[in-house]
From TrEMBL:
InterPro entries cross-referenced by the UniProt entry: SBP_5, SBP_5_dom
Solute-binding protein family domain boundaries: 260-586
Domain of life: Archaea
This protein's record includes keyword Cell cycle: no
Protein name: ABC transporter substrate-binding protein
Signal keyword on record: yes
Annotated family: Belongs to the bacterial solute-binding protein 5 family.
Naturally occurring in which organism (per UniProt): Halosolutus amylolyticus
Keyword terms, alphabetized: Signal, Transport
Transmembrane segments: none
One matching Pfam family: SBP_bac_5
Amino acid sequence: MNRNPSTPVDGVSRRSVLAAGAAGLALSTSGCIDRVRSVVDDGGAKQFSLSILTVPADGDRENVQIATHLQENLEAVGIDVSVEMRSRSEFLETVLIEHDFDVYVGRHPADYDPDFLYEALHSAYANANEDGWQNPFRFSDPRVDDLLENQRRIDGKERKQVVTDLLEAIARRQPFVPICVPDEIRVARSDRFDGWEDGHLATRSGYLGLDPQEDAEQLHALVTDSRMSRNVNPLSATLRERGTTIDLLYDSLLTEREGELIPWLAEDVEWIEVEDGSATASVTLREDCFFHDPNGDSEDADDPAWEDEREEVTATDVKFTYEFLADTSLGLADVPSPAPRYRSHASAIDRVEIDGPHQLTITTSTGTEVGERALTAPILPEHRWRDQVIDRADGDDFEAPQAEWGLVTMNNIPPTGSGPYRYADHENREHLTLERFDDHFTRRADVDLPEPTVEEIRFTVDPGSKSSVERVLSGGADVTATMLGASSIANIPDEPGVTRIESPSRMFYHVGFNAQRSPFGNPNVRRAIARLIDKQYLVDTVFDGYASPLATPVTGEWVPDDHSLAWTDEDDVDPVVPFVGSEGELDVEAARDRFLEVTGYRYDDAGRLLKQY
């Protein structure tokens, strides 16, 4: 084990292993994550062993290569490592629901506002009863809790300073290691549709306001992830990282566009009282907005009687939505069961009062910035969801374990929303087809918002970025709805009728630790592991330069102005956890010294890192 990092491993150099990571070289693809460790010395010390969880190469090539990079460097410092792979949904279930991992490599959806860190890291979500995107790291730290709570209560410059303090505290503790933000690049046919650059294709705005050419009626979009063809439940924690189809099927009170929040289903939101730690808003809903299908069948819209049967979206639905997100059992279970998605949105709402069919007063337990983010949750039809809760609560022993009971795991097909598009058809692992909801409020003459101009959107599952690009170039599809893998971007030709869409991204690749498993509760261990990751090297080689390295899990205006957390082009060095080495080559001896600085570790004669258990 005392080898130079360039020394071959089973005949293959470290650089070759990294390059072949997408093929799964030297990776274990089956077996339990908790493996039996056999290296124990006479003094009772065991070799430091861990398992890295990730998705297969056909799910995300870059994830596998990051995992391989980390595996090789961990092994170089004497740690016993295996890499376990799961499908995308199984991966999220293992991490978010079962919490059965040591270390994982994945992508975090993040958000336009740093309040997403509240749900990601607050210790209130570190207990065994919390599942979903709420603190999957099981991280707990009083100082971080205080800062997470403080940034929720204030606005403006004062909040930005608290967020800076929060980011510095997170950087010191490294509950997860942010690696990079990938460039979001897609390819589309500009001879079929125009206006691609006006919205982000990871949100509803990317599909609204398009200009169909030559009477194009159907937009054919390709996705590499089949999950949207199998499940459109807005509450699911494992079936999506982003909410593109949810944005199209459901309306929210406000919508985010280019980092700004604008009224959507709400015609007006007026903050009428703002105090220290709370705010009250008067919300006026647009009138004559309706849910799609009274009986869950899109063909009902062709029946004249449908006009009289459909349900209007009212203040009652808004109040129900936030109560339901706070407890999906609606108080019928002994233990509340918050929704595994939109948890922090609901937690920001203190109470909702109905002042009329289209008028509400919403009081938050936060400042206005976090309060406004809470108003971006999808509004659900009470008449559909309440009945399902009651139907399932069929006894005194009714339980609704968060993220696991039937209401939040069902596929919710067909869905009933009020958004600009409604469900038309689907076939598992093949496609999801949506059709325009012609009665949507954005199609009114007096509403100045992007509207659904395309009659039908068909999301077709395609196996990968390379084949998706080829299908668009050949005219077999209109757009790659999934952002392209780095290896496919350079192959986009500059030719008439084809456009390359570049969108800002907030989603980031990261390495996550299970802080409730020894020794990952120790921040010194986490930092030592973080310093085995050469982020700039990964950006240059794995992402072919189509990514930006990160020292902190936020982007844009929220990155502090000083260099303590900002990555500078001059240095190309992580300002928080600099890589122990250069240009991807690990300084093994220096890296080993880092682990020796952590109390309780030593090396045996074979170069294995041991810890007294």
